[in-house]
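PROTOCOL LOG
Step 1. Enter all chains and additional molecules of the complex.
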Amino acid sequence: MSAMEDLQASPTTVLWLAPKSRLAERLAGPFEVVAERPAGGIAGCVLAAGDRAGEALRAALADPDRIAAVVLLAPPAVAALEPDLAAHLHEIETPVLALFGTEDTASPPAFGHDWRRALPKGFQTFVYGAGADMANERPDAVATLVTDFFGRGDRFIVKVTDGKLYD
Amino acid sequence: MKVALFSAARYHGPAEDVGWPVASTVYSAEAAHKSLQTALDQFRMADELGFDWVTVAEHHYAPFSLTPNPMVMAGALTQVIKRAKIALLGSSIPINNPVRVAEEFAMLDTLTGGRIVAGMLRGTPNEYVTYNVNPSESRGRFEEALNLIRTAWTETEPFGWLGKYYEYRTVSLWPRIMQQPHPRIYMSGSSPESGEFAARNRIGLGFAVTNVPAATVAANHYREQCRRFGYEPEPEDIIYRVGIHVGETDDEAVADFQQAVTARPGGSLTLANRALERAVAATGYYGRDATVQQDRRKGPLGLKDQIEQGRILLGSPDSVLDQIDNIRRNIGAGVLDLTVTHQMGEKTIRSIELMAEKILPKIRGW
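Step 2. Run joint prediction.
Step 3. Record the structure below.
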């Protein structure tokens, strides 16, 4: 069973490499959120904030069959990664979504471009009106997107929610 | 100073032109066809006579304008206008799909070889009724849509947008915008909020349906805000749109104008529907100086007062030059967007010729 199929079969674990936030509270419903990588690796998804992006990507490299998706909140520039990790980004087959707040000057949306190019299944999304702390500034919007990405991986670009107004 | 010729492509034919929206039960398809053709002809003439820009705008549901989608009109103009820039002043972005707007601008910019001016407006209050958008969301939608459009123009890798009013999982424009990094952007700038937003985002301001005293206050506010945000606006960052009719003499111009213009009750599309106006005002649409913003739309004044306040340019070429000088000195506008009184046939043509012969050469160096 692939990681994606496994994910849809049962509630999944999210390895939380980020501070506690309003976003974490919202994801604690649909997911089991854990702060430590279990011995023997993790089956599930990973969310990492800021400089912890490297840890998340190393986990994806280490457990390619068991990590379904990775979300990075305001990651640093690709050029700022440790060289041994940067050299292997093109090997990561896991869908990775990098989120940037449009008001963030430390990790600005412009960083997304290189992430998108470096990762085979890399996506960038700009969170309007938020800074680096998008997990507290726009928790509902980010939770909806992240839940969808964790559940559907690179199929998340296809809208499946209802657009019809009335019967 | 740069000079643009603006036409809303008014419909000239039988109509029951009262209130807003206006019914089209009394309507002539032939007249509509001819009206759009007249507008294209006048734009072509402006291009040939040396106007710097030709301007189209978005207005809905009334014979006041036959360009509800100015992008379509601009598309036609790409095949007519050989030299001048084509200015969209503008697209009403809060009521449209912003990604679609970004794509349309990119197409037009590519078709013209980089001669598009990108006005993005909130539109007049009645426009919110057109596509069933809550006017209280106008500013929020506007600011987000503008940010999104600029991002779509400049980011070359596909991106998603998690907005407050708009969400896209992936966006990637083809064709790209031709001017780099993007065409000059303008927004409507009569309210203090607009001046602040424009300064913060380093974009130009356009003034329309206003007067010189009000626009002077707004332009000074904009410059002050620009200083605050470390932006040095150029004269071309300020546009003043005003109606114009030029005759050989003052008397002739005034007489012809009075004969041609039958004032619309209430003076504006929004004010033509009092219930709509009150409902829009109640949503907070007008912002923190609501009274000023509502008052500047109110008419009608006597012709003399209108000329004095710079609500219209009217008279002989020399008189109109004085009136333009007043705009330049007070507002510091670097672009004049001239609305021709375009239903006057030969007299309209002569008015445009007089602008080109006697006015444009003089103000070009201002």
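Step 4. Note key features.
Residues 139-152 of chain A form the longest helix (14 residues).
Residues 16 and 105 of chain A are 24 Å apart (CA to CA).
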